Amino acid sequence: MMSDAAERKNVAILYADVERSALGIRSRVAEEINGKTILRRTVERLQRAEQLREIIVFCPEEQIRRIQPLVEGMDVEIIGLQEPVSTSPYVRRRKWGLNCWRGGIREATVFDEQSFTAEMVLRLREREVYTAVAVPAEAILVDPQLIDGLIAHHHKNGSAMRFTFTQAAPGLAGCAYRLDLLHELVQTYTSIGTLLYYDPDSPHMDYIMQECNFRAAKELCVSPWRYLADTARSFGHLNRLGENLNGQLESGQAGQFAARMQERIWEADALPRELEIEINREPSLRIQGYPHGLGARGEGQGASRMGLALFEKIVSDCMAFDDICITIGGFGEPLVHSDLPEMIEAAKRAGILGINIETDGLALEGELAEALAESKADVISVYVDANSRELYEQVKGRDCFEQVEGNLEAFIDKVSDHGPMVIPHLVKTRETMGEMEAFYGRWLDRCGAAVIVGYNDYAGQIKDKAIMDMCPPQRYPCSRLYRTLTILADGNATICSQDFTGQQIIGNIKEKSISELWQSEKMNQLRLTHQEKTFHTNAFCAKCKEWHR
Fold this sequence. Notes:
Layout: E1 10-15, E2 32-33, E3 36-37, H1 38-46, E4 54-60, H2 64-67, E5 77-81, H3 91-94, H4 118-126, E6 131-134, H5 144-154, E7 163-164, E8 175-178, H6 179-187, H7 192-196, H8 218-221, H9 232-245, H10 254-262, E9 274-277, H11 308-316, E10 325-328, H12 340-349, E11 354-359, H13 366-373, E12 379-383, H14 389-396, H15 401-414, E13 421-428, H16 436-447, E14 451-454, E15 484-487, E16 492-494, E17 505-508, H17 514-518, H18 521-531, H19 539-543
Parallel strand pairs: 1-4, 1-6, 4-5, 9-10, 9-15, 10-11, 11-12, 12-13, 13-14
Antiparallel strand pairs: 2-3, 6-8, 7-8, 15-16, 16-17
Helix pairs in contact: 4-6, 11-12
């Protein structure tokens, strides 16, 4: 560190809170990996960057005495903040995409997880900082060479460069902000992800193709891991990595870390990252022909509604990890379940990170709509699937477009800034293609987000209405087998959400825990067939077109 090669003052800034992380969950900056605290490890790595003049650690003013021992004896300035630093409102968009630099709703980035305040900018201005490189306090593997390259690239185009980022996996680098831009972001309550996001009303070339992108090595960009020790899952990953490297966490390079992590790419964690939970089997009005509702499994094939107690067991089984997201939907219409508001509360009490509710929107009205608007759900996904009454009836088989449209419009008005995100969906088919652009533009303007999803024929079980086959030419193991567990209304867990008829059950949550189901012999055997690329041995996998999503 401490190189004066650059005329402009470059500093690294970290925000450390010993109680709450940037994701809004329990902080781990004071916890240890291989005998050193998380914060200390991050600062040690940054001290090896030659282009950084200083390292500044911001923290709540009342926590200064708790932060000081974590970096004792290190060349770092600790600045206590009087203003509270709240969780970034963009974190909600990131919850389903934590392992990639850009991913989640509206293509939110890892940089959007950090919050900045006017007081931070003022303190940096007092120190005549030109460029602030924001690095998460939990980035124990941040690469000093990437930081130096990022800063050098940032200054390459002189005053024209206001920010510079890299596509490296979360935790390996940071984002360089010119101080005037950081000031603007704070004043306008926005984030860098808003600048990077493609807005059809203001079209521009993707910023990854522009000069502000410092191009990191491919293996660092495609590495599907979160190199931030801020969740129980990623903390465990990095702790095991440290044990395997025999003390090389301080001196190792990002490429070395990525290679080691790649060695265990097909090892399943103790718990899934996502759960899809079907709480009932009453029919949901999706694309005509989709297998939603009671008829898909027939009368008498298990309970048609999941009880609140069983749902509470499911989410309680997940409490060991704090990054789990759930989708309440499956093959029924969750909004007609009388316990839905209580289930949302139960999920949050159990520490579920993200909650998504999938609905056709027909029941999104009255007292239920009021309750959902004030609930702790993160996302309400409404499958409208059309932009006109005529198309809606064509694809749904019912004349309900105006009812759904009215419910959706009224619900958007009910939701506050702190309420759930409302996201209209359209399934892209040969029928809906003509209205796709108008649908997307309308709802993007109205509620800030809209999603176009590919058609799913459920491994050939229903008619294929897709515009074209989007599968890559060369097949690889399905990441869903390492990410998502599907639980049906009767408590049965199946190998995959493609199995809507429950033909390949791996066990029942009434008798086993989520971890036992996830690590069951049937699941592990199916994962092995994918690793061996013998996909044809499973009837669903053989015909599946969703394995790459």
